[in-house]
TrEMBL record, chain A:
Main location: membrane
UniProt protein name: Beta-adaptin-like protein
Subcellular localization: Endomembrane system
InterPro entries noted in UniProt: AP_beta, AP_complex_bsu_1_2_4, ARM-like, ARM-type_fold, B-adaptin_app_sub_C, Clathrin/coatomer_adapt-like_N, Clathrin_app_Ig-like_sf, Clathrin_b-adaptin_app_Ig-like
Positions of the UniProt region annotated as Disordered: 572-616
Organism lineage string: Eukaryota, Viridiplantae, Streptophyta, Embryophyta, Tracheophyta
Gene3D superfamilies: 2.60.40.1150, Leucine-rich Repeat Variant (1.25.10.10), TATA-Binding Protein (3.30.310.10)
Transit peptide as UniProt keyword: no
Stretches assigned to the Beta-adaptin appendage C-terminal subdomain domain: 727-827
Subunit-structure text: Adaptor protein complexes are heterotetramers composed of two large adaptins (beta-type subunit and alpha-type or delta-type or epsilon-type or gamma-type subunit), a medium adaptin (mu-type subunit) and a small adaptin (sigma-type subunit).
Highest taxon listed in the record's lineage: Eukaryota
From TrEMBL, chain B:
GO cellular component: clathrin adaptor complex; endomembrane system
Cited Pfam families: Adap_comp_sub (PF00928)
Family, per entry: Belongs to the adaptor complexes medium subunit family.
Protein name: MHD domain-containing protein
Name of the gene: ga09975
Domain MHD: 121-377
Compartmental location: Endomembrane system
Gene3D superfamilies referenced in this protein's UniProt entry, alphabetically: 3.30.450.60, Mu homology domain, subdomain B
Length: 827, 379
């Protein structure tokens, strides 16, 4: 207890940053160190101290290891926002990575690895090679693979972790365990640290054994890990055993393994509540797959008084899954005990659990019901309501068996105030109307408040009244049904209710016998499948035991928000997508669309390539070939902010906070793609890449790597213009091409020759003309980039508003744009 | 998704960040939990700061960052042996020696022990601590019971000692073909410290290891055999209309007379609104603990085969709410310690210590039984 560094947290004077700056540049070592500590303290509490970057980096050249570590810590945090300055630190890194002290060497290499700036990574390769004594030119993957065979188990374990991680982010098979590496890994397992064992076990779980014998062999080597004190090791071992068990055919072996796995799983429950919870969620999965493992251990899932509520709920779930004819008495006693506790949610779940056991175990149903009745007699309101809900399910499951208890249920009719309980009770009354003497009175008491009831209750009331009427077609029910049908059709706004009421009405009025067949039909049997996972999902989750996904019971893709680092597009792919016909490629090789694969660091940094040559006097469809290079218009151009909001393509709810709206637009004869990125989260989103695939606009498969924070882009739409190009005619349009027409009611052709000339200036070429009655018909042709031909027919009378334009083209998605262009040309 | 920790936050009671390290994007739950307990409760931080408090973290935030640096790399936990860590990360990092470099142990196969440790007197202390968990139903049935035991070791040994531990484990004794003289016990589940060679244990049930220096939990075990409740408590609660409540508590020790339970504490729940306690006991002292809504009866020394009584009377308010809220049904809870005694009957038969230099080491063994989750539900 020597440090008294807490004082660094408590300086909140004005002008802190300049003050710190001064101290950082102090000539005294101690003062500098203090200052760096202050900076780190400020960083920790969330202040932005990135402006001190240069000053802090200056302190890096020091012999003091502690100071060095702090500076590195700072670097890791801010290098991303100051990539250019971070390079200043590289020299020191390189020097440090050759330091005689291994601690400093490791620190330097590790820190460089943590800084996610491309340029640093380049520098990292050399020192890494030096440190690892690697000769191969950047063959890190190979090197990592070699490291698996290293003598040092710590090295093996970390190499495995690294490879597994690379594999996760890659589409290509990089790390495949062969039978050779398998035995290496199994040997290393005995020697490395506990965390290393977890890495190895996790990657082993991806290995698919060739046959039952190999699977048995793996399992045999892994089983001792069940005895490890670290529960992460235990669960990883359980995962492998469960996966390999699929292949093992010998029932003896399987039974033996099940026996071996039970005690370690049970022991996990004597750990801290947090670990218990994780264990319980995993056990929940295991029980669904192999109920036999814990079949005899149900007692350990009995709740203790002091268990946190989340542990109790999970235990209850597992108890239901493990309940069987053999242990049901004991389990029911427990449930009854829980149902008299104070926590409402827990009590409800306990009551529901009794019902689910009744549905699951036919022979125990009667005992379950008697427990429920005992609970109803306690007259605790929410217990009664919950009990009625589950009794309804029990009636569904075992029709015509337990009606004797209805009388007891009816006693608590008045206390019901929750919709679900009410609806359940009404369902019961309707279903057994013929056995309840005063069924009509009971229903009538509900009818008074019909308009105020929630939809759930209204629907049940409607159905129950119809049932009552069909079963007892006397005068009382007749009046009731009139009132209900009236209420449910004329008085309601709920379409579900209205539809159902009309169907009943029509059925009853046309054919009461048919109505009977429909309404009183035998219902399909229900089963207790609540909270049962779908088997393919279950298998996926089992393969992820001991990760968050097995706790959430969701596959990893469902919640890991980090987009996989976009795989660097392979050269070949680029060559394929790159659009190289454009002459501009040769001229402007540095343009982002170039196929060289340099993911250009975009708008902010790239000097905006001049936007297309001076606008032509008339709206020019021809634009300029220079426009092909996806020139980036400066972000602050005024035209950007106006205009209606863009249509949302990716709402923030599905995009994990990122909302993308985009639209194709045409401005000053240019085609723009307006994209707006909106960050709805508090945090910073990064690591974006935009890729335009090959498309009709001639924009090649360019990629933009928006590695800057999206937050800085805010609402400003990005615009990527293309020019459109119409060249010489191409008459080989086949007859089955689509034809489209559009009227321009306000356009006027003042003179045919002027029109032809004007169009020709925009590379729409004249072919022929004819007269049809008083109308002039012009035939023209045009060709868009990427060789898309257009045949155009313009029809109109000179001097009279109203021009009709018909177009034939194989690419119909270009047609709207074309029409828009044409409108501008002939206005 | 491989198991890696994405970030680590240490917050103060108001949720403000004290110390944080961000590693990446995804997290393995169990590893993180386990890492946390390693980090906070038991090992590393305790070792460094004795008491883990907000103040101690603030005071040492630089060291904390250093520790985090070494213990976790890109979200992968690496190295959590406090003893070895403290060899190269000193609390008073100010006075730094030139020769600060990681000890060899960090990358050795025996990563938990450094070489060259020397003691004048070579000693090993072994504590066998068992805790009894029991849950008794309101009608006196034992719903569940188990025993969780731990072998806690403190080693003061020179060099790289090879240890071999012998227990009266039935599986082992039968495998060796020995007549089961005395009692042999069945252990349901055994968990070992990472120093124990698990593969060897799997083969022939020998517990062999090179121990870390200092104190550690060598193994924990669990038995789910039915245990007779060591201390049986019966409580009769009589509610006289709405004015007062009478408690009569009987406690009986059900173990051999030569053992004695110490620090017995029996907690009997009473209604939330009880007042005016009037308590008499035949042994020990009892008092009303309103903060726990219970009467706590303490008996310093409780020999085996004895029975003690405690009577209490509380006043209740005569007015109650119209809508009766169901009363909290807390169980009776019991705490005690019984030294020189184990419920399971586990015995350390031998602890062999072999080191190249051939010194003689003295093993000391102690046994103790404690109450764990010891609950008796009221009617």
């Amino acid at each position: 207890m020597s440090g008294h560094d807490s004082k660094y947290f408590s300086t909140t004077k004005k002008g802190e940053i300049p003050e710190l700056k001064e101290e950082l540049n102090s000539q005294y070592k101690d003062k500098r160190k203090d200052a760096v500590k202050k900076v780190i303290a400020a960083m920790t509490v969330g202040k932005d101290v990135s402006s001190l970057f240069t000053d802090v980096v200056n302190c890096m050249q020091t012999e003091n290891l502690e100071l060095k570590k702090l500076v590195y810590l700072y670097l890791i945090n801010y290098a991303k926002s100051q990539p250019d300055l971070a390079i200043l630190a590289v020299n020191t890194f390189v020097k440090d990575s050759q330091d005689p002290n291994p601690l400093i060497r490791a620190l330097a290499v590790r820190t460089m690895g943590c800084i996610r700036v491309d340029k640093i990574t380049e520098y990292l390769c050399d020192p890494l090679q030096r440190c690892l004594k690697l000769v191969e030119d950047r063959g890190f993957l190979e090197a990592l693979k070699d490291l698996i065979s290293d003598n040092n188990p710590m090295v093996v374990a970390n190499a495995v972790a690294a490879l597994a991680e690379i594999q996760d982010n890659s589409i290509h098979p990089i790390f495949e365990i062969t039978s050779h590496t398998l035995s290496k890994l199994l040997t290393a397992l005995n020697e490395c640290t506990e965390w290393g064992q977890v890495f190895i076990l996790d990657s082993l779980s991806r290995y698919k054994a060739a046959d039952a014998r190999e699977a048995e062999n793996i399992v045999e080597r892994v089983t001792p890990r069940l005895q490890h004190a670290n529960c992460a090791v235990v669960l990883s071992a359980v995962k492998i055993i469960l996966l390999q068990m699929e292949l093992i055919t010998s029932t003896d072996v399987v039974r033996n393994l099940c026996k071996k796995m039970a005690p370690p799983l049970v022991t996990l429950l004597s750990a801290e509540p947090e670990i218990q919870y994780v264990a319980l969620r995993n056990i929940n999965l295991i029980v669904q797959k192999r109920p036999t493992i814990l079949a005899h251990e149900i007692k350990v899932f009995f709740c203790k008084y002091n268990d946190p509520i989340y542990v109790k709920m999970e235990k209850l779930e597992i108890m239901i899954k493990l309940a069987s004819d053999r242990n049901i008495d004991q389990v029911l006693l427990e449930f009854k005990e829980y149902a008299t506790e104070v926590d409402v949610d827990f009590v409800r779940k306990a009551v529901r659990a009794i019902g689910r056991c009744a549905i699951k175990l036919e022979r125990a149903a009667e005992r379950c019901i008697s427990v429920l009745l005992e609970l109803i007699k306690i007259k605790v309101n929410y217990v009664v309501q919950e009990a009625i809900i589950v009794i309804k399910d029990i009636f569904r499951r075992y029709p015509n068996t337990y009606e004797s208890i209805i009388a007891t249920l009816c006693e608590s009719l008045d206390t019901l105030d929750e919709p679900e309980a009410k609806a359940s009770m009404i369902w019961i009354i309707g279903e057994y109307a013929e056995r309840i003497d005063n069924a009509d009175e009971l229903l009538e008491s509900f009818l008074e408040t019909f308009p105020e009831e929630p939809a759930l209750v209204q629907l049940q009331l409607l159905t129950a009244t119809v049932k009552l009427f069909l079963k007892k077609p006397t005068e009382g029910p007749q009046q009731m049904i009139q009132a209900v049908l009236n209420n449910a059709t004329v008085e309601t706004d709920n379409p579900d209710l209205r539809d159902r009421a009309y169907i009943y009405w029509r059925l009853l009025s046309t054919d009461p016998e048919a109505a009977k067949d429909v309404v009183l039909a035998e219902k399909p049997v229900i089963s207790d499948d609540a909270n049962q996972l779908d088997s393919s999902l279950l298998d996926e989750l089992l393969a992820n035991i001991s990760t968050l996904s097995s706790v959430y019971h969701k596959p990893p893709e469902a919640f890991v928000s980090r987009v996989k680092a976009a795989p660097k597009v392979d050269d070949e792919e680029f060559a394929e997508t790159g659009y190289s016909e454009s002459p501009s490629q040769g001229v402007d090789g540095a343009s982002p669309s170039s196929s060289a694969g340099t993911s250009s660091h975009v708008p902010a940094k790239q000097p905006a390539v001049a936007s297309p040559a001076a606008p032509a006097p008339m709206p020019d469809l021809l634009g300029d070939l220079m426009g092909m290079d996806n020139a980036i218009v400066p972000v602050d151009e005024p035209a950007a902010s106006t205009g209606p909001p863009l249509p949302v393509l990716l709402p923030s709810t599905t995009g994990q906070g990122l909302q993308i709206s985009a639209q194709l637009a045409r401005r000053d004869g240019q085609i723009f793609y307006d994209i707006s990125f909106e960050n709805g989260t508090q945090g910073v989103l990064d690591g974006f890449m935009i890729q335009f695939n090959k498309n009709t606009f001639g924009s090649s498969g360019a990629t933009w790597d928006l590695s800057q924070d999206t937050s800085t882009y805010g609402y400003v739409p990005e615009r990527f213009p293309w020019c459109t190009k119409l060249t010489t005619s191409d008459l080989e349009i086949s007859t089955d091409d689509n034809e489209f027409t559009k009227e321009y009611p306000s356009s006027v052709i003042s003179s045919i020759d002027v029109t032809i000339e004007r169009l020709a200036a925009s590379n729409v070429f004249f072919i022929a003309k004819r007269k049809n009655a008083n109308m002039d018909v012009l035939y023209m042709s045009a060709k868009m980039p990427r060789g898309i031909p257009f045949l155009i027919e313009l029809t109109g009378a000179v001097g009279v508003p109203g021009v009709k334009c018909a177009v034939k083209t194989p690419n119909k998605e270009m047609v709207p744009l074309f029409f828009e262009a044409m409108e501008a040309l002939i206005k | 998704m491989a198991g890696a920790v994405s970030a680590l936050f240490l917050l103060d009671i108001k949720g403000r960040v004290l110390v944080w390290r961000d590693y990446r994007g995804d997290v393995s739950a169990l590893q993180a939990e386990r890492f946390f307990t390693k980090l906070l409760d038991k090992e590393v931080f305790k070792h460094y700061f004795e008491e883990l408090e907000e103040e101690s973290l603030r005071d040492n935030f630089v060291v904390v960052y250093e520790l985090l640096d070494e213990m976790m790399d890109f979200g992968y936990p690496q190295y959590t042996e406090a003893k070895i860590l403290s060899e190269f990360i000193k609390t008073d990092a100010y006075r730094m020696e030139v020769s600060q470099r990681p000890p060899m142990a960090v990358t050795n196969a025996v990563s938990w022990r450094s070489e060259g440790i020397r003691y004048k007197k070579n000693e090993v202390f072994l504590d066998v601590v068992e805790s009894v968990n029991i849950l008794v139903n309101s009608n006196g049935q034992i719903v569940r019971s188990d025993v969780v035991g731990a072998l806690k070791m403190r080693t003061y040994l020179s060099g790289m000692p090879e240890c071999k531990l012998g227990l009266n484990d039935r599986v082992l004794l039968e495998a060796q073909g020995r007549a089961t003289k005395g009692k042999a016990i069945d252990l349901d589940d055994i968990k070992f410290h990472q120093c124990v060679r698990l593969a060897r244990f799997e083969n022939d049930r020998t517990i062999s290891f090179i121990p870390p220096d200092g104190s550690f939990d060598l193994m924990t075990y669990r038995l789910s055999t039915q245990v007779k409740p060591l201390i049986w408590v019966e409580a009769q609660i009589e509610k006289h209309s709405r004015s007062r409540i009478e408690l009569m508590v009987k406690a009986r020790s059900q173990f051999k007379e030569r053992s004695t339970a110490t620090n017995v504490e029996i907690e009997v729940p009473v209604p939330l609104d009880a007042t005016n306690p009037n308590i008499r006991t035949s042994m020990g002292s009892a008092s009303y603990a309103p903060e726990r809504d219970a009467m706590v009866w303490k008996v310093k020394s409780f020999p085996g085969g004895k029975e003690y009584m405690c009577r209490a009377e509380f006043s209740l308010p005569s007015i109650t709410a119209e809508e009766a809220v169901p009363e909290k049904k807390a169980p009776i809870r019991v705490k005690f310690e019984i030294p020189y005694f184990t419920v399971s009957g586990i015995q350390v038969r031998y602890l062999k210590i072999i080191e190249k230099s051939g010194y003689q080491a003295l093993p000391w063994v102690r046994y103790i039984t404690m109450a764990g989750e010891y609950e008796l539900r009221l009617i």
